Protein 1
Amino acid sequence: MRRTEFKLLDSSIWLAYFFAEREEVKELIESETILYTSSLSIFEVKRKLKKEGMEGVKEAMDFIKERSIIVEVTEEIADSAADISTKYGLHAMDALIYACAMSVNSELATADPHFEGVEGVWLMK
């Protein structure tokens, strides 16, 4: 796994952690790496955990908020996301989350194949 000092985790990485899908995700989240999470991923993760009927959703959400720094979507991030969306052909939510990562000079950690070939992305396969 490529390591940088900062990583913004998207919802796919958090979900892989909560569903114990990948050891490398566990290692990343439990490492000393400074982690960020977009406020948009809070929505995505909570929605998925509730849909799956997972117990301890509140505790899971509290863990995300304790383990990572939450990045709120600002006007500047939204503006940047529009450019990113057209440049890379990303959907709105993906472009907004990527723009959040760029706003804090962080690598985006994701399992979403839409990010294949996008600069500044660690893609878990």
Protein 2
Amino acid sequence: MQTKYAAEIQELHQFFQDWFTGSIAQTEENFSRVTSGMSEHFALISPDGTLADYPTVIGWLRGGYRSRPNFRLWTDKIVVRHQTEGLALATYEEWQEIDGKINARLSTTLLQDKAAAPNGVVWLHVHETWLAKEA
């Protein structure tokens, strides 16, 4: 059974692929998929250890529209590791193919229930770590 947390992880990554390839229109309505699904306190730790806050991440995403025409992005092995009242901790693999080169990362995310958000969930935190090439 797929949880709302797994659905949110998959759907947001599909949005990222669509946004970066330009397969959806560059409108505020479309981009609201991100802004309505992330907490204003959102933080991302990238695989290189860089910490980015909500305004920085939103800026990167806005600026990335149609920047990767040959881009595929997918998630795999989504597991909700812990769930408590209104919060869920999940891990998943994120795979990216950019111009024929594939990279992968293991991501841990903290999600919070919020009825008005897509899938009823907002993103609070993501921490990414590179996966070994043979993963």
Protein 3
Amino acid sequence: MDPMNPMNPMNAAPGPRVRPGMSRLLGAAALALAVSLAAAPVAHALEVGERAVEFTLTDLNGKAVKLSSLRGKVVLIDFWATWCKPCKEELPLLEKLHQKLKGKGLVILAININKKKEDATRFAAANKLTMTVPFDGSSDIVSKYKPPKMPSSYLVDKKGIVRKLNAGFYGKSDLDKLEKVILDLLAKP
């Protein structure tokens, strides 16, 4: 390299000098930051046996839906989106389950996570969904539950505890298995 070239790193101006002892102080500060970040609680996916995370959302009809107001009922919380093919296959079957068990105390909350409410409204109307369809376009609630797949359903007992997580949808047999657990929970006081 040309020693007279200003782009030659050998000709660069020296950087700021670190005072003696300052490098140890900076090292200690970096270590303290790393330890505090490692000790910080890590958000995790909601699991079976945990209390369902409280929420209030507005459904597609503009009505407020508050999870805690459903205590005493068995609640199936299902996260779905119109861009999710298995979700679109599952929802008509969830609607049938809703029709079959709503009189026995089952409430299905089919929480839509689309960014545009119109997409969810259009799908719900086309599929004649009568179950409650809350809208979570800002992803506030889905980010708290952290479903492992789309769709994912959380079955919540009468006391507000998650009793089953159904991750994904692989056909009607998924809902048949889920219905058995629902019936068991409905039979309990």
Protein 4
Amino acid sequence: MFVTPAYAQAAGAPAAGGGMTDIFIQLMPILLLVVIFWLLIFRPQQKRLKAQQAMLSAIRRGDTVVTTGGIVGKVTKAVDGEDLEVEIATGVKVKIVRGMVSDVRSKAEPVNDNKPA
């Protein structure tokens, strides 16, 4: 009764150009947020994790290390695997897990155990 003929004709017609374009436009902000999160959070975190793993795998005998508990000591035995033997004072050696090293302060020169004495 209050509807004009122009509105009545357009009401029954399907929306032109809808479908995939509308879905893409609605999903665009979500996709943009995912990309931003990946660039600002996940990617730098992966780089830090790789650098930490490389530092831990490169620990050798003679390196000065700092544990996550704040103990500073010199590595006396570094075998491939989990454990390190660290001298924290003269004659005091402790075993620590390699993953609990937070920093390597000074790198020692490579030790040559095969050199004749």
